[in-house]
Design goal:
The chain is α+β, with helices and mostly antiparallel strands and 387 residues long. Helix content is 51%, strand content 14%. Strands 2-3-7-6 form a four-stranded antiparallel sheet, with helices on one face. Strand 4 and strand 5 form a beta hairpin. Bound molecules: 3-thiaglutaryl-CoA.
């Protein structure tokens, strides 16, 4: 990797284990992902054959303790893994981060010991895939508006409602589903694939995240036993705490997409000639390349400092909002500039930039849209909620 991808020597801020994780995932992405991902994206297919390989790399629940199948990795090691996966494609990173930071984290944080021991080792091994059902057709930025209901019965609970925009939905063996009980309190449930009343449908009209599965979860009177309730859940805040974990991974992941775009623009403009010179020799090109480099470097520094704060137990969720908000916008701008520098070639998926650019539109919107993070920061600064 050229000096450009590490202009401020982020390398020096990483422990040997964190560098090793980054390098291993980088090699995997170069060897197994980059050659196939453009075509998979065009076909609208998630490359399922990579699941066992990602599991082998230990990227499902890597920060969890070893007793549950995890590797006890540091937040920075996890972040580096997300960065490298998203250098391949945002869909691949989404797949891994929904599995780890949303589904597995929810079970780890809000489940009981039996649930942890039952689910987590198989999820680490990639034998069980999870998804996270919070968002609904009419409840996105304001999840408290959810209409999915959980009704108590003599035997357990009955769930009814629809969840939308669920990554891994139809692929998942287990869905973490958030629903309101009769008192209006948000509760968390584990719903298994194939349970009577539980179906999924995939969204096929996406012009973004095409190498990723996005589904509706339809819950039509699904009976859930008491041992499938997450007993630690304290209301909506428990669901939001999982989003913090996922947003943390996004803040790192998008840096990878931006790094890939910068490298692609540099490679292309160095060889492509215009008016007798390489494009890279033109001042307008250099201004853009410098802007891209500044954005990549700013994003890297924000992410790494966030990782250090998390490792020290000092990270707050508004800090995560700031990094998610800024880094996705930096990455999106870098992808747009790279696409533009590639001219007509930049509109094809022969090059990665347009794929990253389209994917990043989703990343800007999901896990808290740009505007939601703006208002989380506004509330933190002023003490006034302006949602
Ligand atoms: P609010 O009063 O702010 O909070 C309620 C309680 O939750 C706590 N809390 C958080 N805790 C940890 N992490 C966070 N990010 C938290 N945000 C809030 C908060 O401290 C409070 O605790 P307590 O003890 O005081 O009760 O609740 P609100 O309803 O006013 O929320 C405001 C807002 C806008 C911040 C929140 O609703 C929000 O973050 N909205 C965005 C939701 C979002 O990101 N949705 C996208 C999810 S993606 C999806 O569902 C698909 S799964 C992913 C995939 O499949 O790709």
């Amino acid at each position: 990797m050229s000096q450009l991808a590490d202009y401020y020597r982020i390398e020096d801020l990483l422990q040997p284990e964190e560098r090793a994780v980054r390098d291993t995932v980088r090699k995997f992405v170069d060897r197994e992902v980059k050659p196939i991902i453009g075509e998979a994206w065009l076909k609208g297919e998630f490359p399922r054959h990579l699941i066992p390989k990602i599991a082998e790399l230990g990227l499902f629940g890597p920060t969890l303790p070893e007793e549950y199948g995890g590797a006890g990795l540091s937040p920075l090691a996890y972040g580096m893994a997300m960065q490298e996966l998203e250098r391949g494609d945002s869909g691949l990173r989404s797949f891994a981060s929904v599995q780890s930071a949303l589904a597995m984290y929810a079970i780890y944080r809000w489940g009981n010991e039996d649930q942890r021991r039952h689910w987590l080792p198989r999820m680490c091994a990639g034998e069980v895939i999870g998804c996270f059902g919070l968002t609904e057709p009419d409840a996105g930025s304001d999840p408290d508006m959810m209409t999915t209901k959980a009704r108590r019965t003599g035997k357990g609970w009955v769930l009814s409602g629809v969840k939308r925009w669920i990554t891994n939905g139809s692929l998942a063996n287990v869905a973490v589903v958030w629903a309101k009980g009769e008192s209006g309190k948000v509760c968390g449930f584990l719903v298994e694939k194939g349970q009577p009343g539980f179906t999924t449908t995939d969204t096929h009209t996406k012009a973004s995240m095409r190498a990723s599965i996005t589904s509706d979860l339809i819950l039509d009177g699904v009976e859930v036993a008491e041992d499938h309730v997450l007993p630690g859940v304290k209301g909506l805040g428990s669901a939001l705490s999982c989003l913090t974990e996922a947003r943390f991974g996004i803040a790192f992941g998008v840096v990878g997409a931006a790094m890939d775009c910068l490298q692609e623009a540099l490679d292309y403009t160095s060889v492509r000639k215009v008016f007798g010179q390489p494009l890279a020799a033109k001042q307008l090109t250099q201004e853009r390349l410098a802007d891209m480099l500044a954005r990549v470097t700013s994003a890297q520094l924000l992410a790494v400092r966030l990782g250090q704060l998390k490792a020290a137990g000092q990270m707050t969720y508004p800090q995560v909002s700031l990094a998610k908000r800024e880094n996705v916008r930096h990455a999106l701008e870098v992808a747009r500039m790279s696409r533009e520098l590639l001219g007509a070639n930049g509109i094809t998926t022969e090059y990665a930039s347009i794929r990253h650019m389209c994917n990043l539109e989703t990343v800007d919107t999901y896990e808290g849209a740009y505007e939601v993070h703006t208002l989380i920061l506004g509330r933190d600064l002023t003490g006034i909620a302006a949602f």
